[in-house]
Amino acid sequence: MGIDFQNVEFKYSKKASKKQLDNINLHIDAQDEFIMIVGHTGSGKSTLVQHMNGLLLASSGTIKVFDTNMIRSKKIKLKPVREHVGLVFQFPEYQIFESTVLEDIMFGPKNFGKTKDEARELAIKAAHLIGIKDDILERSPFTLSGGQMRRVAIAGALAIDPDILILDEPTVGLDPKGKEELMNLLVRMHEETHKTIIMISHDMNIVATLAKRVLVMDKGKLVYDGNKENLFQNQTFLKTHNLDLPTASILAMGLKEKGLITYGKLPLTKEELFQVITGDIPNE
Ligand SMILES: Nc1ncnc2c1ncn2[C@@H]1O[C@H](COP(=O)(O)OP(=O)(O)OP(=O)(O)O)[C@@H](O)[C@H]1O
Ligand SMILES: [Mg+2]
Questions:
Q1: pTM of the predicted structure, to 2 decimals
Q2: What residue's CA is closest to ligand 1, atom 7?
């Protein structure tokens, strides 16, 4: 169960020589994964995740999402796929179309066969979970700020209660407090429900703090699939693929260069850096 990619290739245009996905092999479990996808702009991150719930279908290779073989066929049923895998777009305004926030969040559950009352209940629960205040629920979604709209889009996905939740750059447009709140919420939800979360982000501080597994995309290829520790240790690899280091790591390297601290394992978060500076744990 979960998501399986085998030799997946994809081109937006048949005529183009460039592939936007190039020989992707990948397995994602239905539970307990916290995956972050990173990579330079245009590397194929959004294209990749849109194959995970059937928004895009592969040009060649095979993709299986739970019980569904994602093939180009009129008979393919995407509804069960979308019930298992929720995707919050990079640009949430494209995902919002109802006249009030509440109706918008209710759309998913209603579409999946819930009654109006059940859908309302699920929508309100999801809205509260993501920090949408009651007075916003009756407003038109188009009067909201970017950050609020993003919350509405996330609540819409949560209201369906998918097994796997994919978020394409969910922190863009949020202020630092909103960012932290959203991250805390996702972590709490992941810990309580064991749902698999897949998140695209350019923010290496979030990757360093949250990721259990990191995927790196470059020019349509999956060039890394592993833990964050090995990724951030490899400076040459990071340079080759245009990836930044977390702020704490940059700081640690600067302090080490000046001979002010020593460490064996590069600190990735401010907590780890603090431990090295204060000598709280032997880090040699
Ligand atoms: N609808 C489309 N039609 C044609 N080409 C597209 C389309 N969407 C994306 N592309 C191209 O496919 C490649 C991968 O794009 P994608 O949006 O998946 O990258 P990304 O890694 O998500 O980038 P970003 O970090 O900027 O969001 C890019 O070269 C992009 O120009
Ligand atoms: Mg993208």
A1: 0.93
A2: 12
